[in-house]
Structures are given as structure tokens and as C-alpha cells.
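HUMAN: You are asked to prepare a plain-text protein record giving the amino acid sequence and the C-alpha cells, both parts labelled.

ASSISTANT:
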Amino acid sequence: MAYFEWADDMEIDRGPIDDDHKNLVRLVNELHTATSAGRGHEVIEQIMGNLINYTKDHLEREEQIMAALHFPNLERHKQGHQQFAKKLNELQAKYEAGSITVPSQLSTVLRDWLSLHIRRSDKEIKVFLQRKEKLGKK
């Protein structure tokens, strides 16, 4: 059983947002597997770099998609993204300062944030898309 599993209730658009989220889940599991095997210090730099960069790229892509859809809660969503990016930067700085607990902290922070963010904030995108689709069919 994976540390963090994709679930149907996390589905947003059956497209680029979900693809990004699934890739982030895979990266979190990769990090957790390495840290659980005691190899966190060996792989953390590469995995952490990949996770942080991919997460930031995803947040930008998601915001671009929301802007193109004229999503009404874009600014609030962006604020949540900025706070999360700040947290990732803080963890990276802790790692660079020599903290050995960052690999496990990072996998926990990402798992928890992704799960909650997708199921709460990103769910608004799904609802918005469904409403838009219904209006388009009428």
C-alpha cells in the first residue's frame, strides 16, 4: 500500500490538473519510500528539488487554467498557493542549513496539503466546471 493514494474524490478535471496532482502523489510516495528505507539523505536533494519545482510549476499551470476559465475565486486560490510555496521554500532552507528531518517533514507536508487542497480548494474548480457545462447545455 502506498503512503499516499490517489482517490476518486480527488478528481478535478480529468485532464492537466489531475495529471499534475497524480504526478505529485507519485513524487511524494517516491520520497516517502526513500526515507522509510533510510535512504532519505541519499535521494532527498534530487527528489526535493523535483517536488518543489514540479509543485511550483503545477501551481502556475493551475492558476493559468483558472484564469482562462474566468474562475471567480482565483485570487483567494493564488494566496493559498503562495503560502504553500513559502512553506516549501522554508523546508528547503532548513534542509540546506543541515536539518536531517526535512525529508520526512516534506513528505508529510506535501501529502497533507495535497489531500486537503485538492479536496477543498481545487474541488471549487470542479464545481465551477460542472456548472459551466450545465449552463452550456441549456
Remarks:
- The helical segments are 16-36, 40-69, 74-96, 102-137.
